Amino acid sequence: MPIIKSAKKALRVSIRKHEINDATRAKIKSAVKGVKVGTKSNDKNIDELLSKAYRELDIASKKNVIHKNKASRLKSRLAKSIAKIADVPVEKKAKKSVAKKTTKKK
């Protein structure tokens, strides 16, 4: 247990943030699971579930509960799973062609 006054306060703040972060992670898990269950059962309001999941992921990444790359990775995977049931082709980014540089002869 902390003895110094500032350490006691830091412990209180840490516990409070831990509880808030756990609640945020639980919201993310339930939202993502809702989308996954919706895709398996061909739910009609899948768009609402997807937007809720996107919202929760964006909030969590903004508050540094999860890393922004993890949020974008999860959103990408959710979009792919919905595209499978909708039979809509997922757009792939075209690779940029880089021209090779040649050295000039002297």
Automatic annotation (TrEMBL):
Key words of the record: Ribonucleoprotein, Ribosomal protein, RNA-binding, rRNA-binding
Matching SUPFAM superfamilies: Ribosomal protein S20
GO molecular function terms listed in the Swiss-Prot or TrEMBL record: small ribosomal subunit rRNA binding; structural constituent of ribosome
Top-level taxon in the UniProt lineage: Bacteria
Entry-linked InterPro entries: Ribosomal_bS20 (IPR002583), Ribosomal_bS20_sf (IPR036510)
A GO cellular component entry from the record: small ribosomal subunit
GO biological process, one term: translation
Claim: RNA-binding is one of the keywords in the record: yes
Function as written in the Swiss-Prot or TrEMBL entry: Binds directly to 16S ribosomal RNA.
Alphabetical list of PANTHER family matching this protein: 30S RIBOSOMAL PROTEIN S20, SMALL RIBOSOMAL SUBUNIT PROTEIN BS20C
Family: Belongs to the bacterial ribosomal protein bS20 family.
Protein name: Small ribosomal subunit protein bS20
Source organism: Candidatus Berkelbacteria bacterium CG10_big_fil_rev_8_21_14_0_10_43_13
Organism taxonomic ancestry: Bacteria, Candidatus Berkelbacteria
